[in-house]
Each structure stands twice: as C-alpha cells, then as structure tokens.
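hey m, so remember when u said the tokens were messed up on ur end? i reran from scratch. heres the input so u can diff it against urs
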Amino acid sequence: MVALGLIGVLLVGSALAAGRLWSFVSAVTNRNIFATVAQAVDPPAGSVAWKLRHNQQVNVLLLGYGGAENDAPYLTDSIMAISIDPVTHRVMEASIPRDLWVQINAWPAGSRSRNHYGKINEAYEDGLAKDSTKLARYQGRDGGGHLAEDSVTAVTGLKFDAYLGVDFAAFRDLVNALGGVNVCLDEPLIDHQYPRFHGYMTVDFPAGCHPYNGDQALAIARSRHAIEPDQASDFGRARRQQAILSAIRKQALSVNGITRAPQLMSALQQNFTTDLSLGDMSALYSTAGSTPDNAIEHVALTDSDLLDGYFEQPDSCGPYYVYLLCSEDPTYGTIHAYFQNVFVPRDALAPKIPVQVANASYNSTQLGDRVTAILKPLGLNVTTPFRHYYATQGYIVDNTAGKDPALIEWLQRFFGLPVVTHDPNQSSGEQTTGVVVVLGRDYARRWFGLN
C-alpha cells in the first residue's frame, strides 16, 4: 500500500524535536516547513488532502529503484499505482511491469528526441538526467517522478496526484527499523540467480508466513529468476511486492512502528523522495489506518492478461533480442477502460453471482482466459471460461431473473454489450445459472484496439 510514504506521517505525528522534523520534511519533500504546516491545516483545492476530504479519488505512484548500490541507480525495479476511493473506502494496488515498452515523451514536439521509446522503468531515470532540452515539467528534483507519472498515465489512464520514490537502501533500512516484517508466501521461493554486487547468489524462502529482515524482504521483492514458474512470472513478482507492502503497512501502523519513529526517520531521510506535502501525507496516513485488508484490491498487468511478452519475435512492439512486454491493445484503450472500472459497486458483488466468460470471437484462442484473469481481482465470482460458438456480436446472458441488477449494470458498462435473458446459441460447457458474458468479434476488436 502507500506504507512507504506514510511512514513520513507516522514520524511527524510522534514526539520528535522540531529541529529534526524540519530537517526530515525539507529533505523528503523539498518544501519549507512553515508552508508545509500551513497546507496541512488548510489544504489547497486539488491537493491530495483536499480530494480525500471532498470524497474524490486519489492516485499515487510508488517507485522503487536501486540507488547508489546498483549499477543502474535510477531504473525503477518496482512500479505500483495506488488508487484510493474515499467514497467506498477501498484501495487498488496495481503493479506495472518494468519491461513494458512505451513511448517516453520528455522532450518538446518537433525535437529529435521526441519519439523516444524504451522500457517504462527508464522514465524515472530520464526525468532525473540533466538535459536542458527536456520540457520544464521533467527538470529538477521531481522531474523523474513526473515523467514516471506521465508514462504510467499514458498506459493506464490514471492521472496521478503525487509520486513516492524509495531506493533499495531505504527499503532495507526501513524494514530493519520496523524490527522486520511478517511476509506470507503461498509457495516456496528459490532463486539461484539473485544479483549480488557483480555476481549471483541463491535465495531460498519457504512457503507460509515468516518474519524477515530488510535484506530478506528486498530479495523477496526483487527476485526475477525463481525456479518455481509462478514465482518467476510477472504476476508472481507483483504479488510478492504487494504482500511485502501490506506487511510494512501493518507494522508501521502498529504501536511498535510508532515507537521506532527516530529509526524510521533516519532510514528514509536520505533515500526517499516525494512531491507530497505534509498535509497530503497526513491525510493518506489517516486513510491507510482506517482501511481494512479486505478493502484492498491487488491487480497487475502481466503477459497472462492485458500484455504479451516478446523476445526475438517479429511482432514485438520494440527491438529484437530484448525481452519486452507489449500491450495487446497498442492504443491502451482496453487498459484505460479496465482501470476506470476497478471499483465494482459493493451491491454488485454481495450476492456472489457466478460470472462466466465465453470466447465466441476466434480472434484469439486466449481471449476468454485473459478476460477472466482481469475480472478475478475485482471481487467477482468468476468461473471457468470456455469456447463458444462463433458470434459476430457479443452479448450478456442474465440467467438470474433480475436478482443482481447492479452486477448486470456494471457488466454492461464494462463490456458495452447488450443483455439477453437466454442464450440463443448455448454451447457445451456453458453454465445455465448466474451470468454468461459472450465475447463476440466486436468485443475482440476492441480488446486489440482495432475499433
């Protein structure tokens, strides 16, 4: 969650000397302490604190990078978009893979560098680089954060209100300052190629919930070459990072976290940056403290849903011989639509009506599986997908006799398909209860950005 950034507020709320507080706030926010305190009391319109007070959605980008201990210190190893809905008191954590190939527009239109492409983890580094030809927004201390924000916005459609950046040293020291964290793994994690300085080492973590120190938590978050297929996947890595952030959040909000405020301040001051004000952090901290775990949705863009992975293949969106992830929809329209609808109304979810996806398009043999994969994290009771008879136009079959109108309304809005009360072309494997979403050629074309 937003635990890393909210540590700053925990520190501010503790009984610390004013001189130490001045130093900390100035270092991590680059703001004058008096202006910061004034904004905390009366937040300006449009700020994070103001939006939360007026029940408006807030989006924050979390960035994790190697720092001085890494050969490429400002490539973001971890990128996570956080969306907070104060109306329903829910939070979404979305992991964005670092290998996603995107256009990075840090330069004015017409310049030679305007059409620069690269992996999305390069955006923070490009924004921090000293280059007077870049746009003003991407200059200075926050230039990297702003360029990373705008690059992720182009993919997801989420407009970010702020960013938080933390390097490996701060992450490790933060976990140690908290006295370690309790992280739960659903299966073992063994990686014989975990980077260590200029070589490799083996890391081996068992399944289950165990306490880990800073180095161990960092290894769990960073591992990319696990021998277990699920752990080696983009989704497995995203799931581990989200589990660690959840553990940090719990520990930071505990009494133990508050008593360790001085150590936390020292861990973060030199290796943590943000454009959040003190008032914004305070408002986020209050939100985090009142958000239960079951109100947090965990989603990830992976090659099993909205992305495809390529290496040495002619249909890749980038250069050969480099592993890349490309959006199935090069216009990003499908991804935008997904993130616009991640908070499914609670009354639509409560009845737990089974929802089945049927691929009737033949544009892609994987479409049913991919759509099912993006629906599961949203809380829907999704069942096993199947192949349907070919259909030019898709539709939604409501077998519930109107028992869950809120669910039908959401599905109709999300898919843009008409609703029928029986399937005129019922196929083998199709459920006769609940709801069936039949994806025809029309929806498949939208999925691939062809409409």
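this time it looks ok to me. The first helix runs from residue 3 to 13. if urs says something different then somethings off w ur setup not the seq
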